[in-house]
């Protein structure tokens, strides 16, 4: 079902029907026989996480992992919600099994997962939501690429450096106070190219605003970011460049489709932006014959900047009539 706080996000909805037994639950499967890929528990890797939306704080959520072919091989643990009517991420540590259930045995195969909302309580017709059920991938000799994600929940938060009339601050998510996100306010006097640079690396030179190198390849040249925009149809421009050589750069655009809600935008640097020229020959002032620099996988890109409602403000194709507020999260590459 659509997320109750973000219609562009799909989640699982579970209704614990009135009169349902205390152990009523839901099995989540992606493979045949109600299975999921094997959960590679070890002596030290014993947790799973899930985002949960509960109507009440203090609700006990039980998670059960078992063998899809041998039901007697199972382990169960619990976590308790702390929020009512809001999303939170719960951690389920199977090293601490639920009372009266079997202990975790990493030598066994666990490939089936069930979740029990309000475990121990008879159903009363309440609705719960579940998203992002996560556990570590099994190790392989050639692991797939791992995404680097800037979540803004890091112990040392990213540095947000605004320019040309925009600022940057790490704040609480407007839809989930337990989640930290980036916020930028574009002032009424902002230039059309006002934006924010996101950096996570500390350098001896404080003017070098860097992130870990973005490993672009010919086939893999996208960055995704969750955006909460005040308007649908807004042009969001992202620019990657070399932190010490700004002549090495590439820019691309994505457009918001919803207002006042989160959505994930994909920025494809194999499709670079056109240059912006006020009153140029193209629609809304863009010179469509003059693209920005193409991405080059041989270059080092380790700096990221985001421009909100690019082209609006200053000498742009539309005036900035009022300050606007933008939120962003989970920049991933």
State the main characteristics:
333 residues; mainly beta; five-stranded antiparallel β-sheet
Could you walk me through the main structural features you see in this protein, from its secondary elements to its overall organization?
The chain has strands at residues 2-3, 6-10, 12-16, 26-28, 47-54, 60-66, 74-80, 86-93, 112-117, 126-134, 149-150, 159-163, 169-172, 180-186, 195-199, 222-228, 235-242, 245-255, 262-268, 274-276, 286-291, 303-307, 324-332. The radius of gyration is 23 Å and the shape is elongated. The chain is an all-beta fold and 333 residues long. The protein is built from no helices and 23 strands. The chain is 0% helix and 42% strand. The strands form 6 sheets. Strands 11, 13, 14, 16, 19 and 23 form a 6-stranded antiparallel sheet that branches. The protein has a 5-stranded antiparallel sheet with strand order 12-15-22-17-18, with no helix packed on it. A hairpin with a 7-residue loop joins strand 6 and strand 7. The model is unreliable at 139-144 (pLDDT under 50).
What summary fits the major beta sheet?
6 strands, antiparallel
The percent range for strand residues is: 35-45%
Derived structural class? mainly beta
* Distance, first to last CA: 27 Å
Q: Gyration radius, to the nearest Å? A: 23 Å
Give the overall shape, derived from the CA principal axes: elongated
State the share of residues found in helices, binned by percent. Answer: under 10%
Give the low-pLDDT segments.
139-144
Average pLDDT across residues? 88
Total strand segments: 23
Count of helical regions: 0
SSE string: EEEEEEEEEEEEEEEEEEEEEEE
């Amino acid at each position: 079902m659509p997320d109750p706080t973000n219609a562009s996000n799909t989640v699982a909805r579970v209704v614990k029907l009135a009169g349902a037994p205390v152990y009523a639950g839901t099995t989540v499967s992606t493979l045949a026989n109600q299975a999921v890929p094997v959960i590679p528990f070890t002596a030290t890797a014993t947790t799973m996480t899930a985002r949960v939306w509960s109507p009440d704080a203090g609700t006990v959520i039980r998670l059960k992992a078992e063998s899809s072919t041998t039901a007697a091989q199972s382990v169960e643990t619990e976590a308790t919600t702390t929020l009512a009517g809001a999303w939170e991420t719960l951690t389920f540590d199977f090293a601490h099994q639920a009372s009266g259930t079997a202990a975790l045995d990493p030598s066994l195969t666990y490939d089936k997962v069930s979740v029990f909302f309000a475990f121990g309580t008879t159903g009363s017709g309440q609705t719960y939501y579940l998203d992002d059920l996560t556990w570590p991938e099994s190790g392989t000799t050639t692991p797939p690429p791992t995404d680097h994600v800037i979540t803004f929940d890091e112990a040392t938060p990213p540095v947000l450096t605004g320019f040309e009339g925009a600022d940057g601050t790490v704040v609480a998510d407007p839809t989930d106070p337990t989640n930290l996100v980036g916020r930028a306010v574009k002032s009424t006097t902002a230039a059309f190219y006002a934006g924010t640079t996101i950096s996570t690396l500390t350098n001896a030179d404080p003017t070098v605003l860097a992130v870990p190198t973005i490993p672009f390849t010919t086939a893999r040249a996208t960055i995704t970011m969750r955006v909460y925009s005040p308007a649908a149809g807004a042009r969001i421009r992202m620019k990657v460049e070399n932190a010490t050589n700004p002549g090495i750069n590439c820019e691309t655009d994505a457009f918001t489709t919803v207002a006042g809600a989160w959505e994930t935008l994909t920025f494809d640097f194999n499709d670079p932006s056109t240059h912006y020229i006020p009153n140029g020959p193209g629609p809304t002032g863009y010179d469509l014959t003059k693209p920005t620099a193409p991405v080059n996988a041989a270059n080092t890109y380790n700096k990221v900047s985001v421009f909100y409602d690019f082209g609006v403000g200053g000498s742009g194709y539309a005036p900035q009539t009022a300050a606007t507020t933008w939120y962003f999260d989970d920049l991933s590459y």
